[in-house]
Amino acid sequence: MTPAFPAIPAGHARFAGALRSEWTKLRTVRSTRWLLLALIIATAAIGAGVSAAEATGVAHSAARKAAFDPANWSLAVLGFTQFFFGILGVLAISGEYTSGTIRSSLAAVPRRLRLLAAKITVIGLAALLAGEATTLAMFFAGQALLRSAGAPFTTLGQPGVARAVTATGIFLALLSLLGTGCGTIFRRSATGIAAYVAAAFVSFLVLGLSGLHLGKYTPEIMLLNSVSAARSSAANGFLPPGWDSVTLMACYTAAALILGAVLFARRDA
Amino acid sequence: MTTTALAPRPGTGHYRLAGVLRSEWTKLRTVRSALGLCAGFAVAAVVTGAIFSSIQASQWVREAVPARAGFDPTNASLTAALTVGQFAVGVLGVLCMTDEYSSGMIRSSLAAVPGRTRLLTAKAAVLALVTLLAGEAVSFATFLAGQAVLESDKAPHAALGQPGVLRAVALSGAYLALLALFGLGLGTIIRSSAGAVAAYAGIVLVLPLLLAALPGHPARFTPETMLTSSVAAVAPQAATGALPPGWDGLLLMAAYATATLAAGSVLFARRDA
Q1: Residue B2, min C-alpha distance to chain A (Å)
Q2: DSSP secondary structure code for residue B205 in this structure
Q3: Angstrom distance (rounded) from CA B35 to CA A99
Q4: Collapsing DSSP states into helix, strand and coil, what is residue A186?
Q5: Spatial CB neighbours of A239, under 8 Å, sequence gap ≥ 6
Q6: Are A80 and A145 in contact (CB under 8 A)?
Q7: Predicted confidence band of residue B154 (pLDDT cuts 50, 70, 90)
């Protein structure tokens, strides 16, 4: 007698399988390609346009040269392009709700936390790679531009520079995962993106007005003024360059992901 | 022999603009997220405005005399609330169109009202009216709450009777309605909620940051900067390179909204739903 159904191969709902399926999803949905394309075009176009104008300005101003941090300067465009990292993170989960794939995903991997953990791992690693690649590319392009304009420039060997470049890539991955947290909590793409934008941009516009120095704890200010800075400018009231901001950002991201995970485990899909 | 009508004749006039306006109002009123979003953000905006007025007052008290000269109490009370409000109305405008595509409702809407331009006109009219009322309510409530806070904290405060103040408060409310229409235009062009919300946020919140680095202050022509630094101001904020207070910013925003809606309208009339 033959069995009615072929035997189910063992291990298909294990974590490794879930990771593989999440990687396939992230790699093949259209939005990932659009976002990567937009990221590259925006970064290159804006980077070239803004930086060329700025580099000449710096080269001709003694006052600006004195306080100039070439590493921080070459990464400034990330204040804009971090947007794409966040949206990538949101859509990685909200896209499943839009299309209904979430129901198939949960049928295949019924353990919800396992599914979410696989998703977070894949998005985190992909965003980390993309983040480090973007950061390094911008750093090298920016330094070459400064050099050719006759402005002060720096290298990865200078104190604090390698740390600034590495920490910025990690920070971008954390922003992507903050997006995933928002997407998991809200389930709809529009609301998830709106929540991400509120956390990443509205927060600093509003808190920056406060005069209470709360702005320095917002993601955008941390990214632009402490994570990507190689040296501290003492009087400016920002968090110091280095890992403090990365740690604080990791706490924000963890909080969003934990709330998302609790809701994801309890709600209907 | 008598013939019986197989179906009752459709009532006359249900394809008219009045009927379409009524159906659009029902949609806006009953879609789960829309009015809740609006009300929640209106309250959040007024509360944020009052808190920041208090902070501005305490800063003013601490500041040296020369720095006090540029203090604009109207602008101080409105800016924080408008920063929150501009995001909310834009998302409302976007969702007003894209929610129909997400749910598939757009096909029923177009079956009921085949005149596409008429449908979009009705949608824009209802959205503009609702956000104009909400925008003016938020703007005046924030202004009055903010001035009361500034007064009680012994900082300079403004009254609606002073030159330029009523204009700044009223135009800020109207500007929010224009942002909603701009959002509707983007939603009509892009059709996906995620794409259109991202585009709106990119233009309103991210673009000014980016343009701030360029020479010639191009950021003064972006929607956010025009609202917080020129439309909502009484005293010129020359240092930031902003447009002068008054109608300039509002008219330019009206041009942006019109252009976006016109492009949306052309695409809406030509594409499949």
Answers
A1: 53
A2: I
A3: 25
A4: helix
A5: A216, A217, A222, A225, A226, A245, A248
A6: no
A7: confident
Residue B250 CB coordination number (10 Å): 21
Q: Tell which wins on pLDDT, B154 or B170.
A: B170
Residue B205 has its nearest CB partner, among A95, A191, A201, at A201
* Cross-chain residue pair B80–A209, CB shorter than 8 Å: yes
CA-only gyration radius of chain A, Å? 21
Question: So what's the ipTM on this one?
Answer: 0.71
CB A14 within 8 A of CB A117: no
- In whole angstroms, give the CA distance from residue B104 to residue B273: 9
**For residue A136, with 0-12 CB atoms within 10 Å meaning exposed, 13-18 middle and 19 or more buried, which class applies?**
middle
Does residue B225 have a pLDDT over 80?
A: yes
What are the φ and ψ backbone dihedral angles of A2, each rounded to 5 degrees? -95, 145
Nearest CA-CA distance, residue B69 and chain A, Å: 18
Secondary structure (3-state) at B154: coil
The pLDDT assigned to B189 comes to 96
| pLDDT greater than 90 at residue B79 | no
Q: Which structure tokens are listed for B193? A: 């909620």
Task: Give the pair of three-digit tokens for residue B261.
Answer: 């809606």
CA angle, residues A178, A191, A38, in degrees to nearest 5:
65
Q: Are A50 and B210 in contact (CB < 8 Å)?
A: yes
Which of A53, A76, A90 shows the shortest C-beta gap to B215? A53
pLDDT of residue B270: 92
Q: What is the pTM of this model?
A: 0.81
Gap from A265 CA to chain B (nearest CA, Å): 23
